[in-house]
Amino acid sequence: MASLILGIESTAHTFGASIASNEGRILSDAKRIYIPAKGHGIHPREAAQHHSSIADAVIRDAFRDAKVAARKLDGVAIALGPGLGPTLRIGATLARAIASRLRIPLIPVHHAIGHIEIGALTTGSRDPLVVLLSGGHTTIAAFANRRWRIYGETEDITLGNLLDMFARAAGLASPGGPEIERLAAASCNFIELPYTVKGNDVSYSGLLTAAMKLLRSGRPVEDLCYSLQEVSFSMLAEAVERSLAHTEKGEILLVGGVASNSVLRKKLEIVAGEHSASFRAVDPKFAGDCGAQISWTGTLAFGCQLFIEIEQSQVKPRWRLDEVDVPWR
Amino acid sequence: MKTRLPKSYRVDRLDSSIRIVRASREAHILHDSKRAGVPTPTVYQMDMATCTIIMEYLEGPRLKEALPKMDHSDLKRTCVLVGSLIGRLHSTGIVHGDLTTSNMILRGDAKLFFIDFGLSDYSNEVEAKGVDLLLMSRAFKSTHFALHHRAFGAIIDGYRQITGREEAEFVLKKMLEIEMRGRYSERTQTSLVPDF
Predict the structure, then answer these.
(1) In Å, how far are A162, A230, A238, A245, B22 from B15, measured between CA atoms?
(2) Which residues of A touch B181 (CB under 8 A)?
(3) Which fold has domain A4-115+287-323?
């Protein structure tokens, strides 16, 4: 008989709830996204207030869309980190309450592993070099001996941060990534910006500072969007290329919210092609933060009986990907 | 022969400036590293128009393949050697910029060569040296995870022998600081502070 897991995601601006079966079916994926005021970033406390005001409705939607009754659930998976403490606590509190009320296990899930597993599920990828690009991660990883090993990452801000912060400064609507992509498409006038690759690592803070300075000096925003994308994506593509050469993996799997950017996909596709590797990207439906990444990973952890006692289930805002044992791979 | 081919994922202007800078830097630093006492392939000729360097061919496995086959004492000796070579580079004001076990070749006569100086630079800044060590540490953590502690410890021993204790501590401290700058890296905090 199939096991059914409810997954709850609340690491940052998205509150998501989803039900998945261990046969690989996502039965529902409900979510609501906190949108900060124009020109502002996420305010953790306001995001938490947003989540607590809509959490109940989102969880109800997840049950309704899946046509599953609460008593049929086998476990509750919760993203315990990494992320913002205040928003993590909203999801964790609800997950603990549901698990204890239904007397079913609570399953801790690492948010980034959720991104990877939903990517693997929707693409059929088996042993990839993972490129994880979300708000909190710019990470290149591959699996070996029970853990995701990190081959490259950002040494300061993430690619998501870079795009968001630039979009905010330029007064673009949130989320900034798609807006930047739209404006960039209107230009092919390349402006030089700092390009910083260190081994398999990238560093984006100098690029952000330079782009902001040019923005204030009145350079056309389309040209800056175009150049910012070109430089930041090329840096990442190079770091990925180096990691691919070093790990000799045969697949690239792109996951996380920034995965939906088509300019970036194109660049990584070229890198994969030149190394005779295949290129896959997560289904755009599940690219951004969502409950499905947690419910599906929850079914995998459930199969290995990876449960956590409620007393032990404190949130982990700085939980590192390479600290998590993954027994199902 | 090493030709930096155009990367079609980069726009032309960006790509050509990167290739030219790297090819010329690699040729210069390959040469200067040798003078610092770090074995590198000898550069015979270079052609800036095509970003091509013609250099000595080295026969032997990459350290990445050789390390796992070594016994304890060979491993230790090799890692101390790696550390001392990094120390020699740094003491001469060179940072490699891409220290991985794929970029070191163990030639048939057991002589260890550093290759791939495309990301290298002339720098005496502790930040750049710290990044170099961080990249080395990461390479062991990801590719040779079972050996990481032993191997990296030996590398630091070798490094210290060249730079002296004080300088080595200084660079190591910077390395940890750079690591902390990254995301989600305050391990101790998460494990010590219960957060409900």
Answers:
(1) 22, 11, 11, 19, 11
(2) 155-156
(3) Nucleotidyltransferase; domain 5 (3.30.420)
Task: Search chain B and give the residue with CA nearest A267.
Answer: B9
Whole-angstrom Cα distance, residue B141 to residue A322? 10
pLDDT of residue A135: 86
Please judge whether A318 and B196 are an interchain contact, meaning their C-beta atoms are less than 8 angstroms apart.
no
Catalytic residue IDs of B: 98
Q: How far is A70 from chain B (nearest CA, A)?
A: 26
- Does the predicted TM-score (pTM) go above 0.90? yes
* Mean pLDDT of all residues belonging to chain B: 91
Q: Are residues B19 and B77 in the same domain?
A: no
Q: For residue B94, what are the domain limits? A: 63-188
Interface confidence, given as ipTM, is: 0.88
Q: CB–CB of A150 and B98 under 8 A?
A: no
Phi-psi region of A270 (alpha: psi -120 to 50; beta: other; left: phi over 0): alpha
Across residues A201-227, what is the average pLDDT? 97
CATH superfamily of A127-284: ATPase, nucleotide binding domain (3.30.420.40)
Are both B96 and B156 inside the same structural domain? yes
Beta-sheet pairing, A75-81 with A106-110: parallel
Q: Which residue has the tokens 């968001």?
A: A164
Domains of chain A: which residue ranges? 4-115+287-323, 127-284
B118-154 pLDDT per residue, tens: 999 999 999 999 999 999 999 999 999 999 989 999 9
